TrEMBL record:
Family to which the UniProt record says this protein belongs: Belongs to the IMPACT family.
GO terms for cellular component: cytoplasm
Organism: Methanobrevibacter olleyae
Protein name from the UniProt record: Uncharacterized protein, YigZ family
Record-linked NCBIfam families: IMPACT_YIGZ
Stored Gene3D superfamilies: Impact, N-terminal domain
InterPro entries named among the record's database cross-references: Impact (IPR023582), Impact_N (IPR001498), Impact_N_sf (IPR036956), Impact_YigZ-like (IPR015796), Ribosomal_Su5_D2-typ_SF (IPR020568), UPF0029_Impact_CS (IPR020569)
Superkingdom of origin organism: Archaea
Domain Impact N-terminal: 15-116
GO biological process: regulation of translational initiation
Database matches in Pfam families: Impact_N
Length: 200
């Protein structure tokens, strides 16, 4: 799955109207809606804040007062055509006094998203199972050895009273094998699935 690495923004002027496109990574509809709410409130002085998103649990678009089908849907179509997922597109328009017509609006909103995608850093993401490994400091060498040997990836380390590793894996059986082998040394907790940049 392809998505953007971080937020990106670009702006174009068409017949005195300014179109500012902002792209944001988002894992699900809840995140997407929170981003849209925040940006719409921040730029409520704009004539329109049109939106589209394509995420793991759904898709949606909103023309925000533009004629039906001239903004949100074309924006969503650009994401789909370029196979960009887990992404929110918001195009803020400041009207310059010259009407563009339905065809002109479709082209303007599509171009705005396309131009921002052209400068965005695109990354390949995959769905991984995330596990929390908790263990005493004396077992670091043994745990590290197992993780390296099984080609697992540590996405975060915390050194507190105990050592905590957050480990990404695409095969739960491998983690079960470690738990059985080191049952006295490590406590492993399953945290659920998460999209991460593809691990080689």
């Amino acid at each position: 799955m392809k998505t953007i690495a971080k937020p990106f923004q670009s702006s174009i002027d068409i017949k005195k109207s300014q179109f500012i496109c902002r792209l944001f990574p988002a894992q699900n509809e809840k995140e997407a809606k929170e981003i849209i709410k925040e940006i719409s409130e921040k730029y409520k002085d704009a004539t329109h804040n049109c939106t589209a998103y394509l995420v793991s649990d759904g898709e949606a678009y909103d023309d925000d007062g533009e004629p039906g089908g001239t903004a949100g849907r074309p924006m969503l179509n650009v994401l789909k055509k370029n196979k960009i997922e887990n992404t929110v597109a918001i195009v803020t328009r400041y009207f310059g006094g010259i009407k563009l017509g339905a065809g002109g609006l479709v082209r303007a909103y599509s171009k705005s998203v396309l131009e921002t995608l052209s400068i965005a850093e695109i990354v390949d993401m995959e769905l991984y199972e995330i596990f929390k490994f908790s263990f005493e400091y004396q077992h670091i060498k043994a745990i590290d050895s197992e993780i390296r040997g099984k080609n697992l990836s540590i996405v975060e380390k915390q050194y507190e009273a105990d050592v905590i590793y957050f480990v990404a894996c695409d095969n739960i059986d491998i983690v079960k094998n470690i738990q059985e082998k080191l049952v006295k040394e490590v406590n492993i907790e399953y945290l659920g699935s998460r999209f991460l940049e593809k691990i080689d």
